Structures are given as C-alpha cells and as structure tokens.
C-alpha cells in the first residue's frame, strides 16, 4: 500500500513539474516577444531621430546655405559651408527661413495711415507681399526697409507677417537649436515687428500694427510709430 502511494506521489509530482515547465515556457516566450517588439520600436525610433538630423530636405530646423540649398544641422560644416538662415516654416515645396541676425528696433511706419495690399490680421502667411506693398507705398516704413536692405549672399529678405512670426514662435525650439549650430544670434524676450496691420476695428488699421512675442507665442497690437525688434525672413524657392 505504501509503495502504491509513493508511486502515485511521484507521478503527480512529475505531472506538476511538467505543467510548471509549460507555464514557465509560455511566460518566457511572452517576455521574449515583448522584449523583441520593444527593442524593434526603440531602434526604429532612434533611426528616425538620427535620420532627421541628416535629412537635407525641406524641414523645420534645417539650415539655409548661401547657394540657396539646405542642409540638416547634423551635416553642417562651418569650414566649408556658409549659413544664411534657418528654416522655420515648411509646407510642401515651400520653406521660409529666418536670418541669423537681428536688425535692431524699428517702427512700422512714420505715418498713421492704412496701407492697401498688406495683411490685416495676425494669422496670414503673406509677409513677402505685405513688405512689397509697404515699400511701394508713399510712407516711410523703417522696419520693412531694414529687411529689404539687409545684406546677405541671398536676395529677397522681407519683414515677416504676424502669422509667419507666430509659426516661428511655435517652432522656436528647433530653430534655436540650429541657430546655435551656425553661431546665429539668439531670440530675445521682446516684441518682434511684423508687416501686418491690426484691422480689428475701423480705425485700428491706421493706428496699429501687430508685434509677436516669439518666446511666448502671442500677438499684440502696438502703435505704428513705436519701435520694436526686427528680424528678416526669406522665402526659399
């Protein structure tokens, strides 16, 4: 009787051990599968981040060179390349870059009149046409003139619209990182002048224009004769 019980116990223990091994095997397989999936995701993500650093296409943060080509910050060579700006707006085949220097403080205009053909809100992306309209108007427009006369290997610099400055504010972290790579001037905690008038009321367009705080991202209405910081931008073709 004792021998039969002992035999039954050994058989039960063997069955129990086999079941535990199967459970451990399934658990180990699950852990291994999870680990491999996590590793693959991590590697793909790391590769994507790495590729971004060397992607020379139209991408926010890429560096505009003096030959009108763009290069990723990870591929920039200060000894053989001449940087003239950093891309802050990229959509399809269109890019807008901001200059590596600031041009001091200038007012929107010396006259309190509304100028036709320019942006009247804080959202439109049309600084190039607004600057052109300001330059052909009958009034003196110091901020726009400073941008147009900015000396650079590339021509076509202009005073950004409030909408463009707000895009720059949204992408300021990436742009600032690339600006540091090329040795450009940092952005400051000040109001930056735009080429946009404030048309929120019937009389505002004659008296006020928009400035944008790049560090905070909001647009404010200021008197046109009040001087604020100017930083030119350029459309990249």
Oligomer, anyone?
A: single chain
Q: Main beta sheet: strand number and arrangement?
A: 6 strands, antiparallel
Distance between the termini: 96 Å
Task: Name the shape in a single word.
Answer: elongated
> Count the strands?
11
- What is the radius of gyration? 30 Å
Would you identify the regions where 5 or more consecutive residues have pLDDT less than 50? 28-51
What spatial order of strands do you see in the largest sheet? 2-1-3-4-11-6
Tally of helical runs: 6
Q: Give the proportion of residues in helices.
A: 25-40%
SSE ordering: HEEEEEHHEHHEHEEEE
Mean of all residue-level pLDDT scores: 84
The chain-level structural class is alpha+beta
Q: Which terms summarize this structure?
A:
alpha+beta, 38% helix
Characterization of this structure:
This protein has 237 residues and is α+β, with helices and mostly antiparallel strands. The chain has 6 helices and 11 strands. The strands form 3 sheets. It has a 6-stranded antiparallel β-sheet. A 3-stranded antiparallel β-sheet has the order 7-8-9. Strands 5-10 form a two-stranded antiparallel sheet. The longest helix is centred in the first third of the chain and has 51 residues, at 2-52.
């Amino acid at each position: 009787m004792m021998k039969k019980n002992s035999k039954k116990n050994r058989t039960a223990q063997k069955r129990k051990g086999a079941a535990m091994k199967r459970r451990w095997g399934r658990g180990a397989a699950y852990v291994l599968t999870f680990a491999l999936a996590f590793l693959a995701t991590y590697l793909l993500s790391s590769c994507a981040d790495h590729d971004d650093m060397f992607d020379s296409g139209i991408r926010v943060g890429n560096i505009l060179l003096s030959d009108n080509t763009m290069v990723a910050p990870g591929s920039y060579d200060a000894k053989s390349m001449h940087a003239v700006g950093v891309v802050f707006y990229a959509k399809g085949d269109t890019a807008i870059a901001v200059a590596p220097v600031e041009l001091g403080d200038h007012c929107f205009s010396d006259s309190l009149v509304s100028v036709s053909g320019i942006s009247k809100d804080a959202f439109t992306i049309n600084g190039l046409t607004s600057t052109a309209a300001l330059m052909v108007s009958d009034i003196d427009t110091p901020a726009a003139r400073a941008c147009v006369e900015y000396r650079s290997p590339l021509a076509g610099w202009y005073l950004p619209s409030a909408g463009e400055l707000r895009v720059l504010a949204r992408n300021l972290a990436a742009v600032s990182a690339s600006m540091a790579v090329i040795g450009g001037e940092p952005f400051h905690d000040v109001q930056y002048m735009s080429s946009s008038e404030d048309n929120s009321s019937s009389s505002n367009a004659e008296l006020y224009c928009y400035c944008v705080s790049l560090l905070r991202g909001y647009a404010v209405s200021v008197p046109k004769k009040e001087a604020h910081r100017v930083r030119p931008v350029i459309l990249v073709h």
